[in-house]
């Protein structure tokens, strides 16, 4: 009997082991960290976090308040901080940090900074470790709202730990008898006046001394047990040569909730290693949702590093109350509500691929997020466009409707579509106070003229193109739920992209209120009527009506020729209204793929458009080229800003063999699958297996495809084909198969039928 139980247990553990291969080992969180203001290889930091976790942790090489919080080339670390950053450009909020110090106490961030080398660093999502040059070892492992840290001080050395309250108002209270520090920080930009990040840190070793300090003048109050003020922090001393473990968690609601978060997430873990084991399991379970079988370890490393990065945003911004019910502090109005809230994303980036990837892998979360979007609209007065944690309104477009419509057409029914349409109509016919993407910049002119005039409105042509796409999403949702009033309005506007197309130059172009084209047109000139790009990049932003665009450009042949010339043009640029090179220009030049600027969003879908013009093999070729040339798992691993999971999600989807050209439809457009075999395990328990027989670095062309055993000639796959599971099987070859995918019926969705 006992033997059989043992055998069963053994078998069970074997099964569990078999189901959870070690995939987290492939992830390099240093991917993209070799970045600076002038040149970006990702603008990422070595994030320690659980998937979509509320808090992340990172070593800090930059000054307090500097968006470049960790740069690969820096030689010293000055802290280990709780972080939420989306991109170096967005800075951060709710940050505080710990730093171990030996010898005499040094509190100031410059004075305490200590040398390190990458050879002594382990950078994984579940675990970060660095042995500093002074021999202190710091380790961090995450939970969703907290972390477990371990500081190992060298023998006989004095052992200090400095807590830095970062910028703006902060508070600390040291409770030696409980081996605890509680406090709050308030740093951040877009947040209500009562915003507080309450934290609690519990240590496993007693303090031998303590005090407070403040980080503007670096003055120390030895023995003080509490302080409140600008940049206030604390320090602790431990027995010489101590090894100290600290459990830390935070809350936007209260100190009590922070304690509850700590108890719930870390309470059952006795040691750092227990917490680490759980984090490793969480990531391995998570990453095995997409199980890659292939002989290229390098491609697997790139894939899982990108998949990790695609799985951080939007962050949970909710907590569980004592009864386990989700509730949150609203980053919009500063009140407490029951339900879910998510934040930290700019939809201009992430509507394209990051959210469509979530609809495949995390439909339950996406459904909660759509509810949260409408709650945010009620609290803010506007749909979010750039949440960080409140509304920033940065960039352009009203892309919340893209997320909502995409959810609806993919069967997510967690929200009231009429409410979504009303919120979007309000968005599209008003201008909010926060920036160009809060409400609609130039909405009156867009409505009256059918385009946003330039130079009356900055970046007007880019806005026209994205408003037209958003209006298509409004139309799609209205049509799907039988809302004729909204349908009628948006139907009129979704073709407005035509009004900024200049047939004499064959490009989208700036146009004034009288209808005149902007003078001295140069398709390599950035800015002006465009956003972070030039006419070469913005021509393609007609996601919903590619056949209409093909018609404007003179048919399939002319369209394919124009697409080809993106890659054959010289990689030169004119700085235009930017007045100096911005990093996106430099990155396009460095990529050396002509005018193809994958380092920024406007053109990221473009290579998939060959599928709409009878030349799918060209999409296959370029998809593989971009994966090969512009991505890897190193510190130089991205061709530009990573941008809240978007540039990573491009890779994840592309490696699977398709891409979300037009969110708001249920189609993903085909490229070239990177791996021999991928198994996607869906939330509904079904699996989609994608096999690519004969796949190799040379065999990038689809020769034939079978979907569940039946010949499949289409250049797209539908969402239901994916989530219903089954087998998508390709045969790959070294030469284009020019007879596959060339029928009109093989083309992906377009408002205008193929001519
Ligand atoms: Ca960007």
Overall description:
The chain has 755 residues and is α+β, with helices and mostly antiparallel strands. It has two domains: 27-287, Distorted Sandwich (Beta-galactosidase, Chain A, domain 5), CATH 2.70.98.10; 293-746, Glycosyl hydrolase family fold, CATH 1.20.1610. The strands form nine sheets. The chain has a nine-stranded antiparallel sheet. The chain has a seven-stranded antiparallel sheet with strand order 1-3-4-10-17-14-15, with no helix packed on it. Strands 19-31-32-36-33-34 form a six-stranded mixed sheet. Strand 11 (169-175) and strand 12 form a beta hairpin. Helix 9 (400-409) runs antiparallel to helix 10, helix 9 packs parallel to helix 12 (460-480) and helix 12 runs antiparallel to helix 13 (484-493). The structure holds calcium ion. Calcium ion (CA) is lined by residues 349, 600-601, 641, 643.
